[in-house]
Design brief:
By secondary structure, this protein is an alpha+beta fold. The chain folds into three domains: 315 residues, Beta-galactosidase, Chain A, domain 5 (Distorted Sandwich), CATH 2.70.98.40; 254 residues, no CATH class; 97 residues, Maltose phosphorylase, domain 3 (Sandwich). It contains 23 helices and 51 strands. The strands form 14 sheets. The chain has an eleven-stranded antiparallel beta sheet with strand order 1-2-9-10-11-12-23-18-15-14-20, covered by helices on one side. Strands 7, 8, 13, 19, 21 and 22 form a six-stranded antiparallel beta sheet that branches. The protein has a six-stranded mixed beta sheet with strand order 24-45-46-51-47-48.
Length: 909
């Protein structure tokens, strides 16, 4: 496809965009492992923070990118011409934005650095502004401004860096904005301005504050500024503004020298540099550092370690090397180089989600930090491939967030084992949360072969909420801690497998009057939040059913593993949920299911006995299979629907009146994509039904302009289903192309062998995202595409993990199988390059592998099968079948570490 707008430069994912400021809502992430989280727009707007309570730059939303004047700025006063902004943030330049005086600007960006080149032909001045966050232990953002005289006569310039220092919690943006400025203690030093508020006013209370914020700078050789304007009102002057400050426009002498202080005012890191003559063709550079520190800033160290051009360039090179190393762990090579480079940016996105959560970029689902339960498990899907070393430990820690009632804490803190019931302390349960951990754990086990992970002991989360947040245990106090106790007061531990069983069996009994799992607070679609009483999620009933079947097969593997076992130990209270081991329940009886679950809930409040029951692996497996089979048949029999036009699909939901949501309706046919994804993915839909579902999706959900909609137009607000339908149709959870579910739809189609249909879905996501004229976003996949085709909530979306996983494990067919490497490509003929090859670089068993498929006859999927397989040129004889081949883990683990090892597979027609 011909990509308009940005263009890739070379083969490392660097892209260029002309006149970027003519597109709204653009921003770019800059971040490091130390905790600095920044964003930068084409005119250097954005924010810089380490968390909700510590913003250096003013907290913003996307609307602030064009409305607020409080941005990074670097001013040049030219003798005879007046003030000019190197970042384009002046009243004069903004007024000329759509006139013939518009300056020429170019954006260049890579992993993870951002450069804006701005040139004013009339002034004969060019500015190159490069920004990045270095991979050091400091929470710091660096910016270098390089000024060049492009004319034939000398320019006399006086530079001034100007970066407003908000220096407090986001909670103070409106409430107490002025009062919290009275807390500011402002200090100047040789190289800049520092603010350390005396107290912090936020939800934590009025505490003595230690956090300090600073802006420091130097010329290219380390020369310090000649003075400062540290107080905002003095810098802008009476009647002035940050985009036309009197201190610059009037070229005033600096108000303050080093070693001064001020109290009780809004602050700005306004650093005046010495006036100089810039000869024709000559350049001069300035380095600016923005830093957030846990205490007063060691200004001498910061100056020595950061404030010179050679050091800036050295740190930038280190930064590029770091991100290249991260992203080279997974890279694709196909016949479409533009798509391969675009995928490098998608590869970055799960790492950004780990670092930012869903917060701290201009678009954010919520802004207070922390990570959502569902986000964690889905992001780990990609991290298992890209950052595998730490993921097993991460998964283990977060099983401690499961409650004994099968629900879980919804927010995961920054520290291991830190959990919060909910960000706003709302007792709410998302019914889908229990389904995701098994999916991620299965991927971990297949990648690692670590079946022993299932038998590790782990604690349970405990708070005031019980019985899936329907009741409170008023006898519980926070002083008791957030771990479940047994009746003798000891901390109770159960295996990881016990946690997984609990998460998936409890929902089986937690059903509504139509026999499907209750919707509770919502499922994956947070917008379906108004049916907690009688609503049901058929879609996730299918997901849980397929989980039960997966679990049934998984636990039998425990018998076959080294040191295997034919018995399991679980809490005696949980054993009652495995009803067929004692008194089999009639699963057609909804009251019987609900009554059994109620008995279980009563048995674990306020504590468990601590006693274990030993069960046969095979009997537990059969119980799970019985539950899965019943649900499969229930869904196929009751939830398969047909429209008056003759299209057929699965109903996905019941509303709070216990009425089926999908199908024919006076306002038009109602259909959801979610209801189709999990029935296909989990095997509930037969092969014939999958074909009918794709036809129905194409009829009711596919839109050539924005792709596959999350739902059809319902035509009215659904107060008995969810707030999503209060959104305008075609936006967010109401009928947008929601990338997450669209990619999962593609994944499900690939899994079931509907390769052409799956590829069509993936292609649409790429084409919509990469069409800059419509999507107006940098390379990557957005959370959703709105009605106008604009990409929304860029960078932080779980769809990136699913896209990477789908491409690697389904399209390229590279996946683990209980520790062995399974190769089963589902590539179509047009995906191979001119030489008839495609390849992927990935890690497996601690080794870096380049897996190359050679399709010299250019046969299409379904027309080729695995032929010769070589490893570093040596022919292997792997176990092969129609689906692919299996390479033993041992064959890979014997390879030397550090090198890239080549596995080549010939595909024979």
């Amino acid at each position: 496809m011909a990509i308009t707008g940005w263009r890739f430069q070379g083969k490392e994912g660097i892209f260029r965009l002309e006149q970027p400021e003519l597109s709204s809502y653009l921003y770019f992430p800059l971040v490091n492992e130390a905790g600095m989280m920044s964003s930068v727009s084409p005119n250097l707007h954005g924010q810089s923070t380490t968390g909700h309570n510590s913003f250096l730059l003013e907290p913003i939303s996307v609307e602030s990118l064009h409305n607020s004047k409080a941005s990074r700025n670097f001013w040049v006063y030219l003798e005879g011409e007046g003030a000019w902004s190197a970042t384009g943030n002046s009243a004069r330049q903004n007024a000329a934005l759509f006139s013939g005086e518009k300056e020429k600007t170019t954006l260049e960006a890579g992993f993870l650095w951002h450069k804006i080149i701005r040139e004013n032909g009339r002034l004969n001045l060019r500015a190159e502004t490069t920004s990045f966050v270095p991979m050091t232990n400091d929470k710091i953002e660096l910016m270098k401004i390089r000024l060049t005289n492009t004319g034939n006569t000398e320019l006399t310039i006086t530079p001034t860096a100007a970066i407003p220092l908000y220096a407090r919690s986001a909670d103070d943006l409106r409430d107490h904005r002025h009062v919290t400025s009275l807390l500011h203690r402002i200090y100047t030093s040789v190289h800049g301005v520092e603010v350390q508020p005396s107290l912090s006013f936020d939800e934590r209370g009025h505490r003595v504050n230690k956090t300090a914020y600073g802006v420091f700078g130097a010329a290219q050789d380390g020369t310090a500024p000649v003075g400062f304007f540290p107080v905002t009102e003095d810098f802008i002057g009476e009647g002035g503004a940050l985009d036309w400050p009197q201190a610059v426009v009037a070229n005033r002498r600096p108000d303050v020298k080093a070693d001064a202080d001020a109290e009780g005012y809004e602050a700005v890191g306004a650093l005046r540099f010495a006036t100089l003559g810039l000869a024709p063709g000559a350049s001069v550079s300035y380095v600016i550092a923005m830093i957030i520190s846990d205490d007063r800033i060691d200004t001498q160290r910061i100056a020595a370690e950061y404030l010179s051009e050679p050091r800036f360039d050295e740190l930038l090179e280190q930064n590029q090397t770091y991100w290249k190393g991260k992203l080279d762990t997974l890279s694709f090579h196909s016949g479409d180089e533009q798509h391969d480079l675009w995928m490098k940016w998608v590869t970055l996105q799960p790492i950004l989600r780990r670092m930012y959560g869903n917060s701290f970029l201009p678009y954010h689902d919520y802004g207070r930090g922390g990570r959502g339960w569902r986000d964690l498990w889905q992001d780990c899907l990609a991290l298992l491939v890209m950052e595998p070393d730490e993921v097993g430990h991460l998964l283990y820690n977060n099983y401690a967030g499961v409650r004994i009632d099968g629900s879980n804490a919804t927010i995961i803190g920054a520290k291991p084992g830190e959990f919060i019931a909910d960000r706003n302390n709302i007792p709410r349960v998302w019914m889908d949360h229990g389904a995701w951990p098994l999916l991620t754990t299965l991927l971990y086990i297949h990648q690692s072969g670590d079946l022993g992970f299932l038998l590790k002991p782990q604690t349970y989360f405990r708070d005031i909420f019980t019985k899936r947040c329907k009741e409170r245990d008023l006898a519980w106090t926070p002083e008791q801690g957030n771990k479940l106790l047994s009746q003798d007061g000891r901390i109770y531990e159960g295996t990881i497998l016990e946690h997984i069983l609990l998460q998936n069996i409890v929902p089986f009994f937690n059903v509504g009057e139509n026999g499907n799992i209750q919707l509770e607070g919502a499922d994956w679609n947070d917008g379906l939040d108004l049916a907690p009483g009688r609503g049901e999620s058929v879609a996730f009933t299918a997901f849980y059913a397929s989980n039960l079947l997966e679990l049934s097969e998984l636990i039998t593997r425990l018998e076959q593993a080294d040191g295997g076992t034919d018995t399991l130990e679980i809490a005696e209270e949980i054993a009652v949920l495995l009803d067929s081991l004692d008194t089999p329940l009639n699963y057609d009886s909804i009251p019987a299911k609900q009554e059994l679950l109620a008995r279980y809930f009563d048995s674990v409040v306020p504590a468990v006995s601590g006693r274990k029951r030993k069960l046969s692996v095979r009997q537990v497996s059969e119980d799970l299979r019985r539950k899965a089979n019943w649900t499969f048949e229930h869904l196929r029999k009751q939830e398969w629907i047909r429209s008056a036009e003759g299209f057929e699909w699965f109903n996905g939901y019941y509303n709070n009146d216990a009425v089926r949501v999908e199908g024919d309706h006076p306002n038009g046919v109602r259909m959801t994509l979610t209801g189709q994804v999990f029935t296909i993915m989990g095997g509930i839909a037969t092969e014939e039904q999958v074909g009918k579902i794709t036809a129905a999706v194409d009829r009711y959900l596919k839109d050539e302009q924005i792709g596959y909609r999350l739902n059809s137009r319902f035509g009215e607000i659904q107060q008995n289903l969810g707030r999503a339908f209060g959104f305008a149709f075609g936006h967010k959870e109401n009928g947008a192309m929601f990338s997450h579910m669209t990619v999962m739809y593609a994944n499900a189609l690939y899994k079931r062998g509907f390769v052409q249909a799956g590829k069509q879905v993936l292609d649409s996501v790429y084409q919509l995202s990469a069409d800059f004229e419509r999507s107006r976003m940098y390379p990557g996949v957005p959370e959703y595409i709105n009605e106008r085709g604009r990409g929304m909530y860029t960078y932080l979306t779980g769809s990136a993990s699913w896209l990477l996983l789908t491409l690697l494990t389904e399209v390229y067919g590279v996946k683990g199988n209980f520790g062995d490497l399974h190769l089963a490509p589902k590539l179509t003929a047009e995906q191979f390059d001119a030489a008839g090859e495609v390849s992927v670089i990935t890690s497996f068993a601690g080794r870096k592998l380049q897996i190359v498929y050679r399709n010299l006859q250019r046969a299409d999927y379904g027309k080729y099968q695995i032929g010769q397989v070589t490893l570093n040129g040596v022919v292997l004889e792997p176990a092969s079948n129609e689906e692919g081949c299996l390479i033993p883990r041992q064959a890979i683990e014997t390879l030397p570490e550090g090198a890239v090892h080549r596995i080549e597979i010939t595909l024979n027609a």
